Amino acid sequence: MAFLRHVFLKSSTAAVCGAMIALLVSCAPREVLLPRIGVEVPVLREFPQGFVTPQSYETGEPVGGWGGDGGGVTRTPVIFVHGNTVTARYWLPARAYFKSKGCHGDELWAPSYGWDSVRRFDSNDLSVPTLEKFVNSVVNDIYRRTGKRVPQVDIIGHSLGVTLVRQWMKQENAWHRVRHLIGACGATDGVWTARPDARGQNRTVAFELHPGSPWLEQLNRGGETPGGTRYMTLYDGTGWADVLFPPGSEHASALDGAYNLPYNAKHGTYYDHLELPRAPETMDAMLKFLGESPATPGSHPAPRLVRDGNIIKTDLNHARVHCASGGEYPSRASSAATEVSLQPGVLQTCFALDEQTGLASPMQRFKPAAKLKSPIPTSLTVSASLPSGVYEDPVMVELKSNDPEAFIVYTTSGSIPNSGSPLYAGKPVYVPGTLTLSAVAIAADGRQSAPLQLRYVISLEYIDAVHSLERQFDPDAEISP
Predict the structure, then answer these.
(1) What span, in angstroms and rounded, lies between the C-alpha atoms of 373 and 362?
(2) Confidence (pTM)
(3) What is the CATH number of the domain that holds 427?
Protein backbone atom coordinates (compact mmCIF):
# COMPACT_ATOMS: atom_id res chain seq x y z
CA MET A 1 0.00 0.00 0.00
CA ALA A 2 2.80 2.42 0.85
CA PHE A 3 4.34 1.74 -2.55
CA LEU A 4 1.03 2.40 -4.34
CA ARG A 5 0.49 5.60 -2.32
CA HIS A 6 3.99 6.78 -3.37
CA VAL A 7 3.29 6.03 -7.05
CA PHE A 8 -0.09 7.82 -6.84
CA LEU A 9 1.36 10.92 -5.19
CA LYS A 10 4.22 11.03 -7.62
CA SER A 11 1.94 10.72 -10.63
CA SER A 12 -0.47 13.30 -9.15
CA THR A 13 2.37 15.73 -8.58
CA ALA A 14 3.53 15.26 -12.14
CA ALA A 15 0.00 15.83 -13.39
CA VAL A 16 -0.38 18.99 -11.32
CA CYS A 17 2.99 20.29 -12.49
CA GLY A 18 2.05 19.50 -16.07
CA ALA A 19 -1.23 21.31 -15.68
CA MET A 20 0.50 24.31 -14.13
CA ILE A 21 3.02 24.44 -16.97
CA ALA A 22 0.21 24.18 -19.53
CA LEU A 23 -1.66 27.01 -17.78
CA LEU A 24 1.49 29.13 -17.67
CA VAL A 25 2.14 28.53 -21.36
CA SER A 26 -1.42 29.45 -22.28
CA CYS A 27 -1.53 32.64 -20.18
CA ALA A 28 1.97 34.09 -20.08
CA PRO A 29 3.05 36.29 -23.00
CA ARG A 30 5.59 34.45 -25.11
CA GLU A 31 7.95 37.43 -25.03
CA VAL A 32 8.10 36.91 -21.25
CA LEU A 33 7.86 33.13 -20.96
CA LEU A 34 10.19 31.93 -23.72
CA PRO A 35 13.34 33.75 -22.53
CA ARG A 36 12.75 32.32 -19.04
CA ILE A 37 13.05 28.79 -20.40
CA GLY A 38 15.96 29.57 -22.71
CA VAL A 39 14.03 29.86 -25.97
CA GLU A 40 14.67 32.87 -28.20
CA VAL A 41 11.53 34.76 -29.17
CA PRO A 42 11.01 34.43 -32.94
CA VAL A 43 11.61 37.79 -34.61
CA LEU A 44 11.57 38.64 -38.30
CA ARG A 45 14.79 40.57 -38.88
CA GLU A 46 15.85 40.66 -42.54
CA PHE A 47 18.21 43.59 -43.03
CA PRO A 48 21.43 43.93 -45.06
CA GLN A 49 24.71 42.99 -43.45
CA GLY A 50 26.07 46.07 -41.72
CA PHE A 51 22.65 47.66 -41.25
CA VAL A 52 22.59 49.63 -37.99
CA THR A 53 19.57 48.15 -36.22
CA PRO A 54 18.04 50.68 -33.83
CA GLN A 55 16.60 49.77 -30.46
CA SER A 56 12.87 49.95 -29.86
CA TYR A 57 12.14 52.74 -27.37
CA GLU A 58 9.06 50.82 -26.26
CA THR A 59 10.43 47.29 -25.78
CA GLY A 60 14.16 47.90 -25.31
CA GLU A 61 14.87 45.21 -27.92
CA PRO A 62 16.50 45.57 -31.35
CA VAL A 63 13.94 46.57 -33.94
CA GLY A 64 12.71 43.75 -36.16
CA GLY A 65 11.54 44.09 -39.73
CA TRP A 66 12.84 43.80 -43.25
CA GLY A 67 14.25 45.76 -46.15
CA GLY A 68 17.21 46.44 -48.41
CA ASP A 69 17.49 43.08 -50.14
CA GLY A 70 19.01 44.30 -53.38
CA GLY A 71 18.29 45.87 -56.74
CA GLY A 72 19.52 49.37 -56.04
CA VAL A 73 17.53 52.58 -55.67
CA THR A 74 15.95 54.32 -58.67
CA ARG A 75 12.92 55.84 -56.95
CA THR A 76 11.92 57.17 -53.56
CA PRO A 77 12.21 54.36 -50.96
CA VAL A 78 8.96 53.23 -49.31
CA ILE A 79 8.76 52.53 -45.59
CA PHE A 80 5.74 50.49 -44.46
CA VAL A 81 4.60 51.11 -40.86
CA HIS A 82 2.33 48.50 -39.25
CA GLY A 83 -0.48 48.98 -36.74
CA ASN A 84 -1.15 48.05 -33.13
CA THR A 85 0.07 44.71 -31.66
CA VAL A 86 1.44 43.37 -34.98
CA THR A 87 4.82 43.63 -36.72
CA ALA A 88 6.46 44.17 -40.08
CA ARG A 89 5.25 40.67 -41.04
CA TYR A 90 1.90 42.33 -41.75
CA TRP A 91 3.43 44.07 -44.78
CA LEU A 92 5.13 41.02 -46.36
CA PRO A 93 2.34 40.61 -48.98
CA ALA A 94 2.81 44.27 -49.92
CA ARG A 95 6.55 43.76 -50.36
CA ALA A 96 5.92 40.86 -52.74
CA TYR A 97 3.31 42.80 -54.71
CA PHE A 98 5.36 45.99 -54.98
CA LYS A 99 8.28 43.92 -56.24
CA SER A 100 6.04 42.32 -58.85
CA LYS A 101 5.28 45.82 -60.10
CA GLY A 102 8.92 46.73 -60.58
CA CYS A 103 10.04 48.04 -57.17
CA HIS A 104 13.47 46.93 -55.94
CA GLY A 105 14.16 45.35 -52.59
CA ASP A 106 16.45 48.24 -51.66
CA GLU A 107 13.45 50.57 -52.06
CA LEU A 108 11.15 48.67 -49.68
CA TRP A 109 11.49 48.67 -45.88
CA ALA A 110 9.39 47.99 -42.78
CA PRO A 111 10.17 48.18 -39.03
CA SER A 112 8.63 46.27 -36.13
CA TYR A 113 8.52 49.12 -33.65
CA GLY A 114 6.58 47.70 -30.68
CA TRP A 115 5.02 44.61 -29.15
CA ASP A 116 3.94 41.58 -31.16
CA SER A 117 1.23 40.65 -28.67
CA VAL A 118 -2.45 41.40 -28.12
CA ARG A 119 -1.66 41.41 -24.38
CA ARG A 120 0.54 44.46 -24.84
CA PHE A 121 -0.73 47.49 -26.70
CA ASP A 122 1.56 49.87 -28.52
CA SER A 123 1.73 53.64 -28.08
CA ASN A 124 2.06 56.47 -30.58
CA ASP A 125 4.22 58.70 -28.38
CA LEU A 126 6.49 55.92 -27.16
CA SER A 127 7.12 54.74 -30.72
CA VAL A 128 8.07 58.12 -32.22
CA PRO A 129 11.77 57.88 -31.19
CA THR A 130 11.94 54.38 -32.69
CA LEU A 131 10.55 55.52 -36.02
CA GLU A 132 12.96 58.47 -36.09
CA LYS A 133 15.93 56.14 -35.60
CA PHE A 134 14.66 53.64 -38.17
CA VAL A 135 14.20 56.25 -40.91
CA ASN A 136 17.72 57.50 -40.21
CA SER A 137 19.09 53.95 -40.37
CA VAL A 138 17.40 53.31 -43.72
CA VAL A 139 18.70 56.52 -45.29
CA ASN A 140 22.21 55.96 -43.94
CA ASP A 141 22.29 52.32 -45.06
CA ILE A 142 21.21 53.19 -48.61
CA TYR A 143 24.04 55.73 -48.80
CA ARG A 144 26.53 53.25 -47.31
CA ARG A 145 25.75 50.55 -49.87
CA THR A 146 24.82 52.55 -52.98
CA GLY A 147 26.46 55.96 -52.53
CA LYS A 148 23.06 57.62 -53.09
CA ARG A 149 21.80 60.27 -50.71
CA VAL A 150 18.07 59.94 -50.13
CA PRO A 151 16.53 63.29 -49.12
CA GLN A 152 13.00 61.92 -48.86
CA VAL A 153 11.10 58.70 -48.25
CA ASP A 154 7.55 57.62 -48.96
CA ILE A 155 5.62 56.15 -46.03
CA ILE A 156 2.59 53.86 -46.03
CA GLY A 157 1.05 53.45 -42.58
CA HIS A 158 -1.80 51.24 -41.41
CA SER A 159 -4.09 51.78 -38.42
CA LEU A 160 -1.98 52.96 -35.44
CA GLY A 161 0.88 53.38 -37.91
CA VAL A 162 -0.95 56.35 -39.46
CA THR A 163 -1.21 58.41 -36.28
CA LEU A 164 2.30 57.31 -35.30
CA VAL A 165 3.81 58.60 -38.56
CA ARG A 166 1.87 61.86 -38.33
CA GLN A 167 3.03 62.35 -34.74
CA TRP A 168 6.64 61.61 -35.76
CA MET A 169 6.44 64.17 -38.58
CA LYS A 170 5.06 66.78 -36.18
CA GLN A 171 7.33 66.13 -33.20
CA GLU A 172 10.50 65.87 -35.30
CA ASN A 173 9.55 68.64 -37.78
CA ALA A 174 10.06 66.00 -40.46
CA TRP A 175 7.48 66.91 -43.12
CA HIS A 176 10.28 67.82 -45.55
CA ARG A 177 11.63 64.28 -45.24
CA VAL A 178 8.39 62.61 -46.44
CA ARG A 179 7.49 62.92 -50.12
CA HIS A 180 4.22 60.98 -49.85
CA LEU A 181 2.26 59.75 -46.86
CA ILE A 182 -0.45 57.16 -47.44
CA GLY A 183 -2.60 56.48 -44.37
CA ALA A 184 -4.73 53.33 -44.46
CA CYS A 185 -7.52 52.90 -41.88
CA GLY A 186 -6.04 55.47 -39.48
CA ALA A 187 -7.83 56.97 -36.48
CA THR A 188 -7.59 60.65 -37.42
CA ASP A 189 -10.76 61.37 -35.44
CA GLY A 190 -10.43 58.49 -32.99
CA VAL A 191 -11.68 54.92 -32.80
CA TRP A 192 -14.62 53.65 -30.74
CA THR A 193 -12.65 50.76 -29.20
CA ALA A 194 -10.37 53.24 -27.43
CA ARG A 195 -11.96 54.45 -24.19
CA PRO A 196 -11.00 57.40 -21.97
CA ASP A 197 -11.58 55.27 -18.84
CA ALA A 198 -9.34 52.40 -19.96
CA ARG A 199 -7.39 50.30 -17.47
CA GLY A 200 -4.61 47.78 -17.96
CA GLN A 201 -2.00 47.64 -20.69
CA ASN A 202 -4.14 49.39 -23.28
CA ARG A 203 -4.41 52.60 -21.27
CA THR A 204 -1.93 54.71 -23.19
CA VAL A 205 -3.19 53.98 -26.71
CA ALA A 206 -6.78 54.37 -25.46
CA PHE A 207 -5.97 57.74 -23.90
CA GLU A 208 -4.35 58.77 -27.19
CA LEU A 209 -6.99 57.58 -29.64
CA HIS A 210 -10.43 57.78 -28.03
CA PRO A 211 -12.77 60.06 -30.03
CA GLY A 212 -12.33 63.66 -28.95
CA SER A 213 -9.14 62.95 -27.02
CA PRO A 214 -6.83 65.88 -26.14
CA TRP A 215 -4.01 63.91 -27.78
CA LEU A 216 -5.78 63.85 -31.15
CA GLU A 217 -6.68 67.51 -30.75
CA GLN A 218 -2.96 68.24 -30.32
CA LEU A 219 -2.06 66.07 -33.30
CA ASN A 220 -4.59 67.74 -35.63
CA ARG A 221 -4.07 71.30 -34.34
CA GLY A 222 -2.81 73.70 -36.97
CA GLY A 223 -3.79 71.51 -39.92
CA GLU A 224 -3.88 67.83 -40.84
CA THR A 225 -1.71 67.98 -43.99
CA PRO A 226 1.20 70.37 -43.32
CA GLY A 227 4.34 70.93 -45.35
CA GLY A 228 5.28 69.91 -48.86
CA THR A 229 4.20 66.28 -48.32
CA ARG A 230 1.52 64.83 -50.61
CA TYR A 231 -1.13 62.97 -48.60
CA MET A 232 -3.51 60.12 -49.42
CA THR A 233 -5.88 58.18 -47.20
CA LEU A 234 -7.38 54.78 -47.91
CA TYR A 235 -10.31 53.48 -45.87
CA ASP A 236 -13.61 51.58 -45.90
CA GLY A 237 -16.13 54.43 -46.06
CA THR A 238 -19.23 52.21 -45.82
CA GLY A 239 -19.30 51.90 -42.02
CA TRP A 240 -19.75 48.12 -42.28
CA ALA A 241 -16.63 46.42 -43.64
CA ASP A 242 -14.14 47.89 -41.16
CA VAL A 243 -15.56 47.24 -37.69
CA LEU A 244 -13.30 49.89 -36.12
CA PHE A 245 -15.17 52.61 -38.04
CA PRO A 246 -18.92 51.85 -37.88
CA PRO A 247 -21.71 54.12 -39.17
CA GLY A 248 -21.23 57.60 -37.80
CA SER A 249 -17.46 57.35 -37.98
CA GLU A 250 -17.05 55.86 -41.45
CA HIS A 251 -14.94 58.85 -42.57
CA ALA A 252 -12.85 59.14 -39.39
CA SER A 253 -9.74 58.15 -41.36
CA ALA A 254 -9.87 61.06 -43.79
CA LEU A 255 -7.44 63.99 -43.59
CA ASP A 256 -8.40 67.56 -44.47
CA GLY A 257 -6.42 68.50 -47.57
CA ALA A 258 -5.56 64.92 -48.60
CA TYR A 259 -6.66 62.75 -51.50
CA ASN A 260 -9.19 60.71 -49.52
CA LEU A 261 -10.25 57.37 -51.02
CA PRO A 262 -13.14 55.53 -49.26
CA TYR A 263 -12.34 52.44 -51.30
CA ASN A 264 -15.13 50.05 -50.35
CA ALA A 265 -17.79 52.74 -50.63
CA LYS A 266 -16.51 53.80 -54.05
CA HIS A 267 -15.89 50.37 -55.56
CA GLY A 268 -18.49 48.17 -53.85
CA THR A 269 -15.88 45.93 -52.25
CA TYR A 270 -15.90 44.62 -48.68
CA TYR A 271 -12.29 44.57 -47.52
CA ASP A 272 -11.99 44.67 -43.74
CA HIS A 273 -9.54 46.52 -41.50
CA LEU A 274 -6.66 44.11 -42.10
CA GLU A 275 -7.40 43.25 -45.73
CA LEU A 276 -7.92 46.73 -47.13
CA PRO A 277 -4.27 47.90 -47.58
CA ARG A 278 -3.09 44.54 -48.93
CA ALA A 279 -5.60 43.84 -51.71
CA PRO A 280 -4.12 44.05 -55.23
CA GLU A 281 -6.62 46.74 -56.25
CA THR A 282 -5.85 48.99 -53.30
CA MET A 283 -2.11 48.48 -53.67
CA ASP A 284 -2.45 49.50 -57.31
CA ALA A 285 -4.18 52.69 -56.15
CA MET A 286 -1.31 53.39 -53.75
CA LEU A 287 1.33 52.74 -56.42
CA LYS A 288 -0.50 55.07 -58.80
CA PHE A 289 -0.51 57.84 -56.17
CA LEU A 290 3.20 57.37 -55.47
CA GLY A 291 3.95 57.50 -59.20
CA GLU A 292 2.17 60.81 -59.74
CA SER A 293 5.12 62.65 -58.19
CA PRO A 294 8.20 60.50 -58.77
CA ALA A 295 11.58 61.34 -57.30
CA THR A 296 13.64 63.67 -59.47
CA PRO A 297 16.74 61.84 -60.75
CA GLY A 298 20.14 63.24 -59.96
CA SER A 299 21.31 65.34 -57.05
CA HIS A 300 19.36 68.51 -56.37
CA PRO A 301 19.67 70.86 -53.41
CA ALA A 302 16.71 71.31 -51.09
CA PRO A 303 15.54 74.91 -50.67
CA ARG A 304 16.26 76.80 -47.46
CA LEU A 305 14.42 79.67 -45.81
CA VAL A 306 16.40 82.92 -45.49
CA ARG A 307 15.48 85.85 -43.25
CA ASP A 308 16.56 89.30 -44.39
CA GLY A 309 15.32 91.72 -41.74
CA ASN A 310 11.55 91.25 -41.78
CA ILE A 311 11.54 89.57 -45.21
CA ILE A 312 11.39 85.76 -45.53
CA LYS A 313 12.57 84.28 -48.81
CA THR A 314 14.36 81.20 -50.12
CA ASP A 315 17.87 80.60 -51.45
CA LEU A 316 16.63 79.01 -54.72
CA ASN A 317 15.19 81.22 -57.46
CA HIS A 318 12.59 78.69 -58.60
CA ALA A 319 11.44 77.74 -55.07
CA ARG A 320 8.58 79.47 -53.29
CA VAL A 321 7.74 80.33 -49.70
CA HIS A 322 4.54 79.03 -48.09
CA CYS A 323 3.47 80.69 -44.83
CA ALA A 324 0.51 80.66 -42.42
CA SER A 325 -0.24 82.77 -39.38
CA GLY A 326 -2.25 82.36 -36.17
CA GLY A 327 -0.63 79.08 -35.20
CA GLU A 328 -1.71 77.32 -38.41
CA TYR A 329 0.69 75.21 -40.48
CA PRO A 330 1.19 76.03 -44.17
CA SER A 331 0.74 73.27 -46.73
CA ARG A 332 1.17 72.74 -50.46
CA ALA A 333 -2.25 74.39 -50.86
CA SER A 334 -1.14 77.56 -49.05
CA SER A 335 -0.41 80.60 -51.21
CA ALA A 336 3.14 80.60 -52.58
CA ALA A 337 5.31 83.70 -52.90
CA THR A 338 8.89 84.59 -53.75
CA GLU A 339 9.07 86.41 -50.41
CA VAL A 340 6.87 87.15 -47.39
CA SER A 341 6.92 90.29 -45.23
CA LEU A 342 6.57 89.81 -41.49
CA GLN A 343 3.82 91.90 -39.92
CA PRO A 344 4.07 93.46 -36.42
CA GLY A 345 2.82 91.14 -33.72
CA VAL A 346 2.10 88.28 -36.15
CA LEU A 347 3.82 84.90 -35.80
CA GLN A 348 4.42 83.26 -39.17
CA THR A 349 5.04 79.55 -39.76
CA CYS A 350 6.78 78.92 -43.09
CA PHE A 351 8.52 76.40 -45.33
CA ALA A 352 10.06 76.59 -48.78
CA LEU A 353 9.04 74.24 -51.59
CA ASP A 354 10.69 73.57 -54.93
CA GLU A 355 7.84 72.38 -57.15
CA GLN A 356 10.28 71.18 -59.81
CA THR A 357 11.94 68.65 -57.52
CA GLY A 358 9.36 68.25 -54.74
CA LEU A 359 12.05 69.02 -52.17
CA ALA A 360 11.14 71.23 -49.21
CA SER A 361 12.77 72.93 -46.25
CA PRO A 362 12.03 72.21 -42.60
CA MET A 363 9.22 74.24 -41.04
CA GLN A 364 10.34 77.44 -39.26
CA ARG A 365 8.63 80.23 -37.30
CA PHE A 366 9.36 83.94 -37.45
CA LYS A 367 8.17 86.91 -35.44
CA PRO A 368 9.24 90.54 -36.02
CA ALA A 369 10.77 92.41 -33.11
CA ALA A 370 8.32 94.75 -31.41
CA LYS A 371 8.60 97.66 -29.01
CA LEU A 372 8.04 96.23 -25.55
CA LYS A 373 6.22 97.94 -22.73
CA SER A 374 8.60 96.27 -20.26
CA PRO A 375 12.38 95.67 -20.45
CA ILE A 376 13.62 92.60 -22.31
CA PRO A 377 14.64 89.85 -19.84
CA THR A 378 18.39 89.38 -19.86
CA SER A 379 17.95 85.62 -19.51
CA LEU A 380 15.12 83.94 -21.41
CA THR A 381 13.50 81.05 -19.49
CA VAL A 382 10.62 78.60 -19.82
CA SER A 383 8.88 76.84 -16.92
CA ALA A 384 6.20 74.16 -16.44
CA SER A 385 3.25 73.87 -14.07
CA LEU A 386 4.04 70.25 -13.11
CA PRO A 387 7.43 68.80 -12.13
CA SER A 388 8.83 65.53 -13.39
CA GLY A 389 7.40 62.55 -11.56
CA VAL A 390 5.05 59.59 -11.45
CA TYR A 391 1.33 60.23 -11.90
CA GLU A 392 -1.61 57.86 -11.80
CA ASP A 393 -3.54 59.35 -14.73
CA PRO A 394 -2.75 61.59 -17.73
CA VAL A 395 -1.75 65.12 -16.83
CA MET A 396 -2.08 68.55 -18.42
CA VAL A 397 1.09 70.63 -18.32
CA GLU A 398 1.11 74.41 -18.71
CA LEU A 399 4.21 76.14 -20.08
CA LYS A 400 5.26 79.75 -19.47
CA SER A 401 8.10 82.07 -20.48
CA ASN A 402 9.41 85.06 -18.56
CA ASP A 403 9.24 87.03 -21.83
CA PRO A 404 5.59 87.68 -22.79
CA GLU A 405 6.63 88.43 -26.38
CA ALA A 406 8.40 85.07 -26.83
CA PHE A 407 6.71 82.00 -28.30
CA ILE A 408 7.14 78.50 -26.88
CA VAL A 409 7.71 75.30 -28.83
CA TYR A 410 7.80 71.79 -27.39
CA THR A 411 8.23 68.11 -28.20
CA THR A 412 7.04 64.93 -26.52
CA SER A 413 9.62 62.70 -28.22
CA GLY A 414 12.60 63.65 -26.07
CA SER A 415 14.26 65.66 -28.84
CA ILE A 416 15.22 69.31 -28.37
CA PRO A 417 12.58 71.58 -29.97
CA ASN A 418 13.35 73.95 -32.83
CA SER A 419 11.25 76.85 -34.15
CA GLY A 420 9.18 74.49 -36.32
CA SER A 421 8.28 72.13 -33.46
CA PRO A 422 4.70 72.05 -32.11
CA LEU A 423 3.64 75.49 -30.95
CA TYR A 424 2.43 76.00 -27.40
CA ALA A 425 -0.58 78.24 -27.97
CA GLY A 426 -1.99 78.66 -24.47
CA LYS A 427 -3.57 75.19 -24.22
CA PRO A 428 -1.86 72.80 -21.78
CA VAL A 429 0.18 69.94 -23.20
CA TYR A 430 -1.64 66.64 -22.72
CA VAL A 431 0.56 63.81 -21.44
CA PRO A 432 -1.33 60.49 -21.81
CA GLY A 433 1.55 58.15 -21.07
CA THR A 434 5.18 57.95 -20.07
CA LEU A 435 7.26 60.43 -22.08
CA THR A 436 9.82 63.24 -21.96
CA LEU A 437 8.43 66.73 -22.49
CA SER A 438 10.93 69.28 -23.81
CA ALA A 439 10.24 72.99 -24.26
CA VAL A 440 12.10 76.05 -25.52
CA ALA A 441 11.11 79.72 -25.53
CA ILE A 442 12.14 81.76 -28.59
CA ALA A 443 12.22 85.58 -28.54
CA ALA A 444 11.36 87.76 -31.52
CA ASP A 445 15.06 88.57 -32.00
CA GLY A 446 15.90 84.86 -32.26
CA ARG A 447 17.28 84.33 -28.76
CA GLN A 448 16.37 80.95 -27.26
CA SER A 449 16.03 79.75 -23.70
CA ALA A 450 17.86 76.75 -22.38
CA PRO A 451 15.79 73.60 -23.07
CA LEU A 452 13.46 72.51 -20.30
CA GLN A 453 13.18 68.72 -20.11
CA LEU A 454 10.72 66.90 -17.86
CA ARG A 455 10.14 63.17 -17.49
CA TYR A 456 6.56 62.08 -16.76
CA VAL A 457 5.69 58.50 -15.85
CA ILE A 458 1.97 57.77 -16.12
CA SER A 459 1.49 54.49 -14.27
CA LEU A 460 -1.55 53.36 -12.32
CA GLU A 461 0.24 50.12 -11.50
CA TYR A 462 3.25 51.91 -9.99
CA ILE A 463 1.06 54.16 -7.87
CA ASP A 464 -0.99 51.18 -6.66
CA ALA A 465 2.18 49.30 -5.72
CA VAL A 466 3.50 52.29 -3.76
CA HIS A 467 0.15 52.70 -2.01
CA SER A 468 0.10 49.03 -1.05
CA LEU A 469 3.54 49.31 0.51
CA GLU A 470 2.58 52.49 2.36
CA ARG A 471 -0.53 50.84 3.80
CA GLN A 472 1.55 47.95 5.11
CA PHE A 473 3.52 50.37 7.29
CA ASP A 474 0.76 52.84 8.16
CA PRO A 475 -2.78 51.57 7.41
CA ASP A 476 -4.35 54.79 8.67
CA ALA A 477 -2.26 57.18 6.52
CA GLU A 478 -4.00 59.29 3.91
CA ILE A 479 -2.63 58.24 0.54
CA SER A 480 -2.32 60.66 -2.35
CA PRO A 481 -0.73 60.20 -5.81
Answers:
(1) 33
(2) 0.89
(3) 2.60.40
